[in-house]
Amino acid sequence: MSWPENEENLEERRTRWRARHAESDAAAGIETTGNFTPFRQMDDVFTRAFWDERVRTKESDAFFDSYRADFTARRGDGFNQRDFALRNASWLISDLITDRHAGQGRREGFQAAISDDTPVVEEKVAIEDRAAMSAEIKKVARFFGASLCGITGYDERWTYEARVDVRDFSEAPVGLPEGLESVVVLGHEMDEGLVATYPSALAGAATGREYSHEAAIVMQTAAYIRALGYRAVASMNDTALVIPYALKAGLGEYARNQLVITPETGPRLRFSKIFTDLPLAHDAPRKLGVAEFCAICTRCADACPVNALPYGAPKADRPNRSAIQGVVKWTSDAEKCFGYWAKLASDCAICLRVCPFNRDFRRRTNRLWLRLALSPLRRLALWLDDRSGRAKRLRPRDWWAGSR
Amino acid sequence: MSWPENEENLEERRTRWRARHAESDAAAGIETTGNFTPFRQMDDVFTRAFWDERVRTKESDAFFDSYRADFTARRGDGFNQRDFALRNASWLISDLITDRHAGQGRREGFQAAISDDTPVVEEKVAIEDRAAMSAEIKKVARFFGASLCGITGYDERWTYEARVDVRDFSEAPVGLPEGLESVVVLGHEMDEGLVATYPSALAGAATGREYSHEAAIVMQTAAYIRALGYRAVASMNDTALVIPYALKAGLGEYARNQLVITPETGPRLRFSKIFTDLPLAHDAPRKLGVAEFCAICTRCADACPVNALPYGAPKADRPNRSAIQGVVKWTSDAEKCFGYWAKLASDCAICLRVCPFNRDFRRRTNRLWLRLALSPLRRLALWLDDRSGRAKRLRPRDWWAGSR
């Protein structure tokens, strides 16, 4: 279970990390403790569902089976054949990417980085102005469909100590090349209408569609960088934790529901990332006031059907091995959380639906609410949200009946 | 060069087709002559560029080479490394789909239909109301990102007599299964800002991105249908002509520039299609007034640098084998057209850029202009368009400098 290559000098690494990151961590709202230990992919709860009897159950096997394209079910509104059909079809492009090298143990995008589809061209474009290059990459990422894009520096602490080989769930080197000093973080907004139907198999189509979008967008943006003559490794949930990068790239702030809240899309966002040696200017983290809001709001924790979300202040304790060790933060109990997913045979994001920041900020009234929520008048914002009925679940049949 | 299976009874087929389609053709503005002959894929100008010395040149080889991911060039604004980089990266997902079975001679999406990625599930959803099912498929197609969706009946006249095996460019059976009685036509809007930069390699990113979108969207929508228990063959440029289907599905009307003009996106649209046995209600064709407008407008023909576009009224004559035989319509000279693409080392769509219908119809002033253009006051609309400067090319460097 250990990965000796790195394990032997963990203490030295911790000392180096403390010195190097203290200041920027504080700015991004990241706090680590003396026993900080990088995460290993084998500990993520989805991977544990294949090797750890504590997580693997008949229900968890049935959960994964329900994503098979020939699956049908009839279990009432939101869990009918149409609902599973839409959810499973929505995953298609992501599935196609993840399956390409699964035979060699690489489930790309989830348990291994996405292999380069295109070569790094020999001729490098000249880059005189890193800030202009960053603006260009953001423009290209948006052109390919990213909702948000931020750029920050590489930080080895967030790289997994090992990936897993999905043939036998043994550990294997992550294999991220040296010298990729920047990380481009892409945000992918999830569909508001479908998110409103959580919990349901139908709602899972919001997740699947964004994974499919994400795969295409991150691969195209990385291909663009390689065509400029620089290296670019496209990554989804694999290789490294993305949340600290999203925070350091200034995209948003970490919330009680384990999500990054952004002023543009609230928590309704997925992330992908690109590791690159393209010379880029880096964004600064932003303190928005989300942490102060979450301190007085427990909507997500109250709504969680299995009490997987924490009350109180951020803590360094972790409920089990599926959380990172030595980070002071709000940490969910991933075993409880995934146990509920398995029971539903679909992903649950009630905590996303009920979050007061889950709004469409293209609307002026919601932008006004946001200003209030991020101000000292946050209790008023919370009260207004309570009264609004915004968090109410949309019945899946009403989503289907809607005009779009 | 002949495909005996079908060839032997062409006269009988023509007689049957005349009887069967006369009425619906008239409604869709389709007119065929006595020598109508279905198209063969080997005659399309892109395929001819591989086997026909009349089309294949050093320039055409260089054209295809320029889409290789390791290509770089510096030829001035719009043709720099960045421009080719964006264009080539934009094709990535489409390339991935077309390359999957190229080793078996199937270049899917272009010279062969896309193989099913998912099975047809055994349990069929019950369909009581075909109109409701059509509305559902349109909703799902839009959810996956289609800009427009129309549905019409299968028509064997538009299916290619043969596809090509890209290993040796020999003919092979199209292999479309029997009994797929409906065709779902999806429209994919191209980026307005990039289209404004034609001719340029940069503009080709509008094409490539839409092919990548199109591949994902048509595959996901087809996977949805299969998950409802019905057959669905996803198709891009392969298998059959799509324009007559777009017309019969009521999406728009055929124009002098060889494109379908829709009231939603003008000519700035690509099409994909799904052949299916899902019970669906069909849309009716619509006469909009485009033909009457094109009759007085020659903007595209005037702007074409190689005079590939026709003046005058629709004709049955074809300039060469790359046009279908026996259809009365405005027909371009595909050899001249592609010759210019080869020279540019990128696709040209000046005829799309300059078309007076190339506008953003989300804007009220453009919707007002559209009403005028489709009314007897069309000469006034044309005059207004002339005066507006709308058709002016956006310099590629100005696209790059723009905020989005």
Notable features of this structure?
homodimer, alpha+beta, 404 residues, globular, 4-stranded antiparallel beta sheet
Explain what this protein looks like in three dimensions:
2 copies of one chain form a homodimer. By secondary structure, chain A is of the alpha+beta class. The first copy, chain A, has helices at residues 4-7, 10-28, 45-51, 58-65, 81-90, 92-99, 130-144, 192-195, 204-227, 243-248, 290-296, 299-303, 334-344, 350-353, 364-373, 378-388, 396-401; strands at residues 32-37, 148-153, 163-165, 170-172, 182-189, 232-235, 253-254, 260-261, 269-276, 325-327. In chain A, strand 7 (253-254) and strand 8 (260-261) form a beta hairpin. The longest helix of chain A is centred in the middle third of the chain and has 24 residues, at 204-227. Chain A is globular and about 55 Å long. The interface between A and B is large, with 45 and 45 residues.
Shape of chain A: globular
Oligomer: homodimer
Mean pLDDT of chain A: 95
Query: What are the secondary-structure elements of chain A, in order, as H or E?
Result: HHEHHHHHEEEEHHEHEEEHHEHHHHH
